[in-house]
Structure formats: C-alpha cells, structure tokens
Amino acid sequence: MSNEVTLRSSTPSIPKTILITSNEDPSKQANLVGGLISIAYFESILSDTLRATITFTDTGINTSDSIKESILEGLPIVGQEKVLLKFEDNNEITIGDKPELVMYVNKVTPIADDTRKTQIKLDLVSAEFIRNEKTRVTKRYDGKISDHVKQLLTEGNSIGLKTKKDVSDIDETLNNFNYIGNNKKPFYIINWLSRKAISAKNQKKGTSAGYFFYETSKGFHFKSIDSLFSQEQKKSIIFNETVGIPEGYDLKALQYSKDSNVNVQNKLKMGAYSTRTILFDPFTTYYEVVTPNAALTEDELKLAGKKLPKLNDEFNNEGDKKEFTRTTYNLLDKGTLPTGDTNQQIEKSDEENFEYKDILNQSIMRYNQFFSSMATVTIPGDFSLSAADMVYLDVPQLEEERVENTSKQNSGLYIIAELTHYIHVTEGTFTKLSLARDSFGKTGRPSKSSIAN
C-alpha cells in the first residue's frame, strides 16, 4: 500500500465499532455507529493519557436488542462505562485493531434535546486516567528512573496503575534517583521524575536533560527530548498552491498556520538559554555558582533545525558567571536515602542522590527550547501518525514573484506535539497536527526525495 495520502483521504469514513457497555449489566451494550455525528481522538506529548470525544444522536432505535429506549436512560450512561473503539481512515489504517482501543466515559454532555431524540457528547479517557485518581504511591524506589517509571505503570496493589498496555518504549536513563512516593499520584510522580532524567543514549550529563511522558494508541512512552529529535522522520508534508502532491512528498496540507512562539521576555524569564544554579551544602558550608549556557553546549544537543535562535550580543552581561536570566537555589542532596545496609549507607553518606549541577537547569533550558518554533497543519485523515512522531514540513517562502521556493527558515523537521484525528459523517476525515521544534533553519528532506537541502 502506498504511503501517499491524497485529497480523497479527507472524505468521510465510517468507524467500524463504537460499542458502549452498561456498568449495571455487562450484557447490555449499544453500538453508537448508527447515530454517530463525529468522533475526535486526541494524543499529546503533554498529556499523560489518551482522550476522545464522541457526539451522537440518541434515538434508542437500532442500537441494541436489549435497549428499547434512549441509550442515555436505557443503558444507562452515568460515567465510567467501557467503550470499545475501532475506526480507520480512507487508506485503511486502523486505530483500535492491534492493540485494541478501550476507553471509558468521563463526562456526559447533552447538546440538543427534543421529544424524539437527543444529541449527546461523551468525553472518553484511558483506564489509567481513572486509576490514577484512586492510587497513591507510598513505597520507596531505588535505582534508575526509567525502571521506576515502568514499575509505576505496571505494578498493582494500589501503588501503581496496573496497566496491560505496552510499556516497552521507555528510554533507559543514565542517572539513578532514590525517593519515597509520599502519597502522591503515579502520574504526578512520573512527571516529577521526567525533569530529573538524563538519557543514557541521547543526552550528555551537564549539557542536556529532560523527558516527556505520554500515551499513544500503541501504548505508553517515556522519551528524552533529544531522543525525539534523533528519530527518523515518519512522513513528509508540503503546503503550496499546486494541485496534487508533488513528487517526493507523502501528504499535502489543506491548512497551515505559523506560530514562532517568540516572546523574548518569557523566554528569558523561564531561562531558555542561560540560567544560574546556586548550590549550598549546609553540613560543609560548600557554596558554588554554576551558569549553564545553551550557546556553549549547542553542539552537544540533538536539534531539529540548524541552530538555536541567535540572540543579540548587545544584551550579554560581561564577566565570569554573569550571563544568566533565571536563578534556582538548591541545597545539595547528599546522604538522602542511600541504598544498602547500615555500613553501606554510612559509606555513601557523601554521595549526591540528585546532581543539581548537571541536570536541573539543563532540563529547564531544554523544555523551554522545545517549543521555540511551532506550526499547525491540517491534512487529510492519516491515522498512521502519532504524537511524538517526527515529520518533515515544506512551506512556501514569501516572495514578490509567484514561485515555488520553500522557506529556509520555517521548513524542515518538526515533532508532532499534539494531534487530533477527526471523523465527521458529513464534513470528512481529517488529522490536525500541532508541530514543534527547538531550533530554526531548514534541515532534512522529503521522505521520497534524494534532493539535498
């Protein structure tokens, strides 16, 4: 099957299964496909779990042999009902086949009502979203952060999320970290750990840090920022005024908008490019000032574009350790929860549990760099794409004469930060992508092209 997604792919597609099961009686089920108006399915690297919304007309007719009245009252729908989803785009790429997609009702919203029918919107969430609200982490964890994340996802007994989904896509971390859960929710702990992690493969201590935790239809993922920018591109997209898809591209964007996300004051306040860490050891009175600077470590980073934004040298502060825009103050984390027996713990009492100097501000910078350049594109439905995939985007360069040159600043590689797969019974089938990258300048090339940059 060809990877090319043509304009025909935006015509309406019919979901195969939207089967909702009663909480009171599992034998009572209703298939909502017959009354479906629209379905919107969401993935995001900033969201712990999947989300979806289903809008349908509830007439109580032709939905189930066991329900002779409206689904809302006959099932009834009160929240946490199990919903089995299976839908595909016009290129026969299916979500909900392997693995099976099961979600649960989180919110019920009646939209329009009369004596014969009701329009209802259901907000759906993953099972882990609900389990997270009923789980508290109380035990102690020792060792690599990546191992902790896998344990928090798979363990049961009210200390983990007991997921059966795939958790194999977890980047191994370089650093260890010991801690106690302190009665926090699992997702809170995982996101807290994300800011403390360094990838063993794609990041270097002292230059970069930081992970994203998210779910796609394939399972859960725990990936470093630099790992995302190191992956192979999934698809190539072009936005232009020509008819059809030019040679070498997989997709033609129907809509495109650009958001450079350049706000100098906000970037400086958040420490995107220069920070300061002040460290103090209350036991030895050790004191140190460290000033990580992205410009000095740029060559060690995995970038999507050619380079980080070049700021005006006129505003640089001269002098040793004077160039910074944000400061964090930290007590050295020594002797906290060392592993081993009593004698081993005494021997390790001088070891740092968490190395603020080489991790904290490096992750602060990378998170704030990640969304430096953003774009939004709408394409014909392509359900092969997932959040965190890398795509290549070509957009036209603004020129006085009408030519088809592509922008050397805004074209290039992007990460899918968020996506929405949308099916409407009359409007069509679309995929909306929110794209982000940490740097500027065109890199990469179309998927099927041998043309250099």
Characteristic terms for this protein:
453 residues; 3-stranded mixed β-sheet; Phage tail proteins - horseshoe like beta roll fold; 15-stranded mixed β-sheet; 3 domains; Phage tail protein beta-alpha-beta fold; alpha+beta
Tell me what the structure shows.
The chain is of the alpha+beta class. Helix content is 15%, strand content 32%. It has 9 helices and 25 strands. It has helices spanning 71-74, 127-133, 145-154, 186-194, 225-230, 264-269, 294-297, 342-347, 356-370, and strands spanning 17-21, 29-31, 36-44, 51-58, 82-88, 94-95, 101-113, 118-125, 140-141, 169-170, 179-180, 211-216, 219-224, 233-238, 251-252, 255-259, 276-281, 286-290, 327-331, 333-334, 352-354, 373-380, 390-394, 412-424, 428-437. The strands form 5 sheets. It has a 15-stranded mixed beta sheet that branches. A 3-stranded mixed beta sheet has the order 10-13-12. A 3-stranded mixed beta sheet has the order 18-17-19, with helices on one face. The two termini are 28 Å apart.
What would you say the CATH architecture of the largest domain is? Roll
Q: Approximately how much beta-strand content do the residues carry? A: 25-35%
CATH class of the largest domain: Mainly Beta
Shape by Cα distribution: flat
What is the percent of helical residues? Answer: 10-25%
What's the main sheet like?
15 strands, mixed
Distance from N terminus to C terminus (CA atoms, Å) equals: 28 Å
CATH third-level topology of the largest domain: Phage tail proteins - horseshoe like beta roll fold
Tally of DSSP β-strands: 25
Poorly predicted regions: none
CATH superfamily of the largest domain: Baseplate protein-like domain - beta roll fold
Compute the CA-based radius of gyration: 25 Å
Structural class: alpha+beta
Number of helices: 9
Number of domains: 3
Mean pLDDT: 89
